[in-house]
Backbone:
């Protein structure tokens, strides 16, 4: 049986230029991390509780002052106008209509102000977060922060899993290294060092450090999340540095191919953080039940990347709405089947590993 999401992916594949489909679908190296993200969810099972549910569940979650209708938000993905002419605007409207949070970013093909406007045209209190890579020149990072603040973004997501760009062999095969004429990373215009309307390249720097993060912290009052945390010691350091939230992520398997599946890294990070700040996860979430598993293992919410791109390429705003509504319905259904009333009712004792009987060392958590 083809799931609705897989069907959308097939439609997206038919509508996209093969090089662009592979850019979206692909991962680094042998795509082990990419594949494991999904397979690791499939290796887990939920032990449902009984006789304690509710006719109507509350699926909302509070995140850094924003509220989402479900614990599934939209992760930052680059270059939406490769998928659809309405690009990030369509994603913004659909995400706002679905009542959840959109993370736009440096590599958007639509300026952040226009993305926020599109979201707020659908829902005046829609929340949009801004993702950035720390740039080697602090004044460039600061200009991006000011741009996001001015646009009305309510949080900054700093991606820290990309000291260098991952090696994506699909892109190498296609020779896909540049955007087609007419498309650009619009947030990179008019920054320090460019002439009027000029574009800067997005830099990834292996020399980025906690000092750079501290500098960013001092630039803004917005909540700062670190995206791409996999080591529990880094999670502890981040808490000590005053970071507001973490996203357990391996960049959808596009950076370090030897990285673990995110849902397997999550429990140790959740333990290290011990509830002091929210922990989010992305990578491989394809069903509402995947979101439920991640929440049971300590996440406050999950992000989705590729599913949104498939919806966008297949059917524009409507396709993205379909993806988000599907995940919401599935999450609520899973919660009901697990005897839950709200996300907080999903707990670690409810997660076991398939193939190992529960109660006989079946749970590695
Ligand atoms: C095509 C594509 C572009 C991406 N661009 C970015 C980006 O610009 N910044 C970033 O932090 N993460 C980026 N990511 C990673 C996502 O934010 C997210 O971590 C990942 O897609 C989650 O995995 P999933 O696609 O399995 O849901 C990108 C992912 C994809 C697939
Ligand atoms: C040097 C261009 C950076 C674009 C970032 C896109 C991205 O993160 C990806 O995974 O692709």
Residues:
């Amino acid at each position: 049986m083809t799931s609705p999401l897989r069907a959308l992916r097939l439609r997206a594949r038919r509508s996209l230029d093969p090089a662009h489909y592979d850019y979206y679908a692909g991962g680094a190296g042998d795509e082990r991390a990419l594949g494991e993200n999904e397979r690791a969810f499939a290796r887990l099972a939920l032990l449902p509780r009984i006789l304690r549910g509710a006719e109507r569940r509350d699926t909302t979650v509070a995140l850094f002052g924003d509220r989402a209708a479900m614990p599934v938000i939209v992760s930052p993905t680059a270059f939406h106008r490769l998928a659809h002419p309405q690009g990030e605007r369509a994603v913004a409207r659909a995400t706002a209509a679905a009542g959840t949070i959109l993370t736009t970013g440096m590599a958007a093909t639509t300026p952040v102000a226009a993305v926020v406007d599109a979201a707020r045209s659908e829902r005046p209190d829609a929340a949009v977060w801004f993702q950035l890579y720390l740039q080697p020149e602090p004044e460039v990072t600061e200009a991006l922060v000011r741009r996001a603040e001015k646009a009305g973004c309510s949080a900054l997501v700093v991606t820290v899993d990309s000291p260098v760009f991952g090696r994506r062999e699909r892109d190498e095969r296609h020779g896909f290294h540049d955007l087609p004429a007419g498309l650009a990373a619009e947030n990179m215009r008019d920054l320090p060092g460019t002439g009027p309307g000029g574009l800067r390249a997005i830099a990834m720097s292996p020399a980025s450090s906690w000092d750079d993060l501290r500098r960013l912290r001092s630039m803004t009052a917005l909540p700062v999340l670190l995206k791409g945390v996999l080591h529990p010691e880094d999670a502890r350091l981040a808490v000590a540095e005053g970071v507001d939230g973490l996203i357990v992520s391996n960049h959808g398997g596009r950076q370090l191919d030897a990285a673990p599946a995110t849902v397997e890294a999550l429990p140790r990070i959740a333990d290290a953080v011990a509830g002091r700040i929210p922990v989010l996860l992305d990578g491989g979430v394809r069903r509402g039940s995947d979101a439920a598993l991640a929440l049971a293992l300590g996440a406050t919410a999950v992000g989705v990347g590729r599913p949104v791109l498939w919806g966008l390429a297949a059917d524009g705003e409507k396709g993205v709405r379909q993806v988000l509504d599907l995940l919401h319905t599935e999450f609520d259904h899973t919660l009901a089947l697990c005897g839950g009333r709200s996300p907080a009712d999903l707990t670690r004792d409810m997660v076991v590993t398939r193939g190992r009987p529960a109660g006989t060392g079946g749970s590695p958590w």
